[in-house]
Amino acid sequence: MSSDKFPAIGSQLKNCPVIVTLGVCPNFSDYPEWKKKILADSPRIYFPTSLYAEMFVAMGKEIFPSIECYRFVGDKIRQTLLFEMLGLPVLRTRVYYGPLQRQNILHDFPLPFVGKAPRFSSQGQGVFLISTQNELEKYLKHNHPAYIQEYMPACRDFRVVLAGTKVLLAYERIPDKEEFRANVTLGARISFEDIPNGVIDLARSASELCRFNYTGLDICQSEGRYYILEANMKFGTSGFRQAGLDLKAILCELVQNRMI
Q1: Are 250 and 259 in contact (CB under 8 A)?
Q2: Is 156-256 a CATH 3.40.50.12240 domain?
Q3: What is the pTM of this model?
């Protein structure tokens, strides 16, 4: 391998001329010796996948995305704890364990409120607006622990995608009038206009503090205040397509310029 090339496991940089993509082998022994040597000799690995990320870090190698991106992927509970501990603005959120969930939730939150699947949900499928006690009972049957968040009915919803310290794209997600969730897969409309500076500033601050160097951050604005909702390490590319942008080409350029 040329000294000016780096290896990648995932396929996100497959066509980048300064990257050699090795692919994912669930068993390391299945890699041929020449690929093992590339991984052993390289100080930096791109898109190592969740299977290998921790191993490369333990070996003293740099990886992109950062190990924090892999450690917090898909876990709303741990992300919220991290945001709160770092002093980032979040909507009022509590997690409930045990048999007294229903009683404690109704004591802490007035109806309506939002219940979410605490881990590994996407595209709005694990997000529920709970307006009645019966809806709460239904939510609790399938979600343990319970992840409960205050409901902001007049909240603007934004997605900001960053790589390294660079904002790649920012847009507002405007939900269908019959839908409270602002997911594009559920019919939300994308707008690139009038993105407040406060949204960009919070995204940059959160990315730096959390060491999330490749993520799509969801941020809402309500009554002039901004709140970070979630970090998405696996995010859709509808916004890039609508903006006429090629995410893989952008990533390749960043790698070539040593910006990531």
Answers
A1: no
A2: no
A3: 0.92
